[in-house]
User: Fold this.
Amino acid sequence: PDRAYVIDEMISAKAIAARIEALSREIKAEFSDTDKLVVVGLLRGSFVFIADLVRELDLPIEVDFLEASSYGNAMESSREVRILKDLRGAIEGRDVLVVEDIVDTGYTLSHVINLLKSRKPRKLKSIALLDKPSRREVDFRADWIGFEIPDEFVVGYGIDFAQRNRNLPCIGKVRFID
Ligand code: PRP
Ligand code: MN
Ligand code: MG
Assistant:
C-alpha cells in the first residue's frame, strides 16, 4: 500500500479463541456421525483460522486446500473468482467443511460452494470467521459465522492488506493516517 496506516485492534486473539471453541462444539455436533470430515481451507486468507479450528475439532478429519483469489492486491473485489489451486482429493460422498476468513461481497465463498456442490459431497457446510453483511452482492450466508462486523477494512489472523499483516494475531482495522 502506498498510503501510511496504523492498525487498531478490533477483535482480540482471546476473543477469537473463545469463539472458535464455541463454534467447534456446534461443528462437532453437526458432524458427530462422520467417518471422516474433509476440512477445506481457502488459501491464502484462511490459513490461520483453519489451523486453530481443526485443533479444536476432535473428529476424524482430513485437511485439504483450495486457492481462490478475487482481490489480488486491490482493495476492491474483481467479482471474478479464479481457482488457482484445486483440491488434492475427491469429495464425492464425503462430509466437507469449507473454512474461510471473511465473507464480503460473497463472490468467493459462494463460487467455491457451488463448485464443490457439483462434485456431490454427502454433506457440505461452510464457516467464515468474519462476515460483512452490509457489503454483500450475492445472496449467500455461511452456515457458521464467527463475528459479524461493520464495513471496515480489516487485517490480521490471516487477512492481508496487499499481502501484508496476515501474521497479526488479532483482527485489526486499518486507519489511514495521511
Ligand atoms: C479475500 C478473503 C476472502 C474474499 C472475501 O481473499 O480472504 O477469500 O477475499 O471477499 P468476497 O466475499 O468479496 O469475495 P483474496 O481474494 O484477497 O485472496 P487471499 O485469501 O489470498 O488474500
Ligand atoms: Mn481469501
Ligand atoms: Mg487478500
Summary: The chain has a mean pLDDT of 96. The pocket of manganese (II) ion (ligand 2) is lined by residues 42, 45, 108 (CB under 6 Å). The helical segments are 13-30, 47-54, 107-117.
